[in-house]
Backbone:
C-alpha cells in the first residue's frame, strides 16, 4: 500500500512538473526587451535590435516531431503504469480468493472436529 502511495505521489509530482514547465518558461510582459538589451521604456527597435533573417543549416528543429515523441513517451509510461497496476490488483485478488478458500476449508474442518467431539 505504501509503494502505491509513493508511486502515485511520484506520478503527481511528475505531472505537476510536466505542466508547470511551459508556464514557468513564459516570459513576463516586457521582459523580452530587457533580455535583448533595451532599457526600460525603450522598445527593441529603438535600441537597434534587428531580427535575424534566414536560417543556417542545422538551425531548425522539427518541433512537431519532438512533440509527438514526447507525447508518445508520456503515453507509453502511463500505459505501462496502468498495466503494472492491473497485474498487481489481479495478483492481490487471486491471493484473496485463495485465502477465502483456505479459510472455508479450515472452517469445515473445525465444524467436523466439533461434531465429532460432541458425539
Residues:
Amino acid at each position: 500500500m505504501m509503494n502505491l502511495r509513493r508511486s502515485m505521489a511520484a506520478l503527481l509530482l511528475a505531472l505537476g512538473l510536466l505542466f508547470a514547465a511551459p508556464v514557468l518558461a513564459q516570459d513576463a510582459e516586457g521582459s523580452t526587451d530587457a533580455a535583448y538589451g533595451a532599457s526600460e521604456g525603450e522598445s527593441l527597435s529603438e535600441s537597434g535590435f534587428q531580427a535575424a533573417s534566414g536560417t543556417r543549416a542545422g538551425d531548425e528543429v522539427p518541433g512537431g516531431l519532438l512533440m509527438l515523441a514526447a507525447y508518445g513517451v508520456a503515453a507509453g509510461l502511463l500505459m505501462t503504469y496502468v498495466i503494472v497496476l492491473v497485474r498487481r490488483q489481479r495478483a492481490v485478488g487471486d491471493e484473496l480468493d485463495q485465502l477465502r478458500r483456505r479459510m472455508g476449508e479450515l472452517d469445515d474442518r473445525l465444524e467436523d472436529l466439533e461434531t465429532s467431539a460432541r458425539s
Observations:
- The first helix runs from residue 2 to 25.
